[in-house]
Amino acid sequence: MNQPLAGYAPAPVTARMENHGDHMLKVAMQTGNDLLARVGSMIAYEGFIQYEPDPPAVRQMARDWATGEGAPLMKCSGDGLLYLADYGANVVVLNLNGEGISVNATNLLAFDAGLTWGVERVKGLAKFAGQGLWNTKISGQGWVALTSRGKPIVVDCGGGDDETYVDPDALVAWSPNLKVKGKRSFRAQSLIGRGSGEAYQMAFSGQGIVVVQPSEDSTDRLRVRG
């Protein structure tokens, strides 16, 4: 029986975070290097790993999460190998080296607890969507894992004059130094929901990347948030 299953065995650890296939994240856990992960994402682990739902660092964000942005997180600590997934979504691993990334919370799977993070309002969109769009910004030195509903495309905005336009329901993440603005087309009165995605786009310009999934999230990204 082992012979036909050999190709699915875990590969040797080469990094703190890495993919095992397209839909699973493997994290090398070490004492003192804690991880924040989406609640319910653990599918297996080896070694001694403990879990703390709603840790103090997350409770401090509760006020910001009243805006509607945010995801339930748990703190993972200990030694061993931890495997995470999110209903078969593709997993994208990023190693931040002093950079930042602005992430749609529904696409946030896990990140190193030592990274700086918080919920921030996206500037330039309030006039299009009530109180605007809120995203989770993560920065510093460490690892981040995102999910995508299908294999994503990473668009390099390149720093030129041309803008990159994205349906907000298909947006996963972007470089926070990019300039963002909204653009209306077709029916200006239809700004909310998957069915009207083509009536509203987010325009990005500057030096950085935009990560787009080949599926429109069922959550209305641009609803009014207080």
Automatic annotation (TrEMBL):
Transmembrane segments: none
Pfam families membership: AIM24
Domain of life: Bacteria
UniProt-listed InterPro entries: AIM24 (IPR002838), AIM24_sf (IPR036983), Trp_RNA-bd_attenuator-like_dom (IPR016031)
Name listed for the protein in its UniProt record: AIM24 family protein
Originating organism: Streptomyces chlorus
